[in-house]
Amino acid sequence: MITELAVERVAFACGGCWNEWSTDYDVQHWRDAEGRQWEYFSCDGVPVASPYTPRGAAPCPRCGRRWVGRVLARRIVPPPPGETDTPREEILSGAGHRPERHGARPLGASAHPQPDQPGPPLHEAPRPPAPRPAR
């Protein structure tokens, strides 16, 4: 049984090149028939290991090294309403109910603004501007 649904924004900071980034993960807490609690993560709909463990550490988009994340923000997804006075709409035609939702653009896990980078990594010299083509 699902006991909690949430979206967690996870921050990463690369100790190799000092790049910083963040990614949103969907998190489910689940209790099995024996009463044990489990935590499931997914990113863009794909099941992944916990980003808080070395096994699920994300690769740095700049240098590829892997770093364990830390929670930056969290939003609980409320469970389905049970009370009769909770706002809700009955779905009368399954296939025809809000058909535009099927064509909606996927919301990517990294589609939010990323942290500003302070400049080139400490071990890298600034790059000269690219030459302009001759006219």
Automatic annotation (TrEMBL):
<protein>
    <submittedName>
        <fullName>Uncharacterized protein</fullName>
    </submittedName>
</protein>
<feature type="compositionally biased region" description="Pro residues">
    <location>
        <begin position="115"/>
        <end position="135"/>
    </location>
</feature>
<feature type="region of interest" description="Disordered">
    <location>
        <begin position="75"/>
        <end position="135"/>
    </location>
</feature>
<feature type="compositionally biased region" description="Basic and acidic residues">
    <location>
        <begin position="85"/>
        <end position="103"/>
    </location>
</feature>
